[in-house]
Amino acid sequence: MFRITKLADYGMVLLIEMARRPRETFNPAELADSVHIPEPTVSKLLKRMTSGGLLRSRRGKNGGYELNSDPEQITLAQVLSVLEGPFAMTECSAGPGRCQLEDDCSIRTNWQQINDAIFHGLDQLSLAAMAKPLEAQAVPLHLEQ
Predict the structure, then answer these.
(1) Residue (of 95, 42, 54) closest to 78 by Cα position
(2) pTM summary value
(3) Burial of 111 (0-12, 13-18, 19+ CB in 10 A)
(4) Residue closest to 45 by CA, chosen among 62, 26, 60, 61
(5) Domain residues of the chain, as ranges?
(6) Does the domain made of 6-130 have the CATH classification 1.10.10.10?
(7) What is the pLDDT of residues 96-136, one digit of tens each?
């Protein structure tokens, strides 16, 4: 099963909360309270996202964290790259020399194409899009007969 880590998920929750109010500066304690994530985890993620260029921090009485760009300009691919590192579905998708089977693998190119397609999809989704509430829709079930 392909999954993002819990920290990356929490980071995405924090950024989407911030994208809903993009002109605000966020205090870690208040942000932790509003998204129900422990404050030490929020602080750790805010620091990581600041060093990754997604956020900027301000010191002082009215200090805190704010988005470094408009929510329309920050993509999910950027967020996951900061929080998870380079995007790779398989070892061979991460770059050459990472899999001992890569010289003889008949499906390496296929995995790389799948990796590229998913990354491209994530790169087309912005925080602004994720911050908009979607109405629950019934998804039609396609059963083979």
Answers:
(1) 54
(2) 0.82
(3) middle
(4) 26
(5) 6-130
(6) yes
(7) 777 777 778 888 888 889 889 999 999 999 999 999 876 55
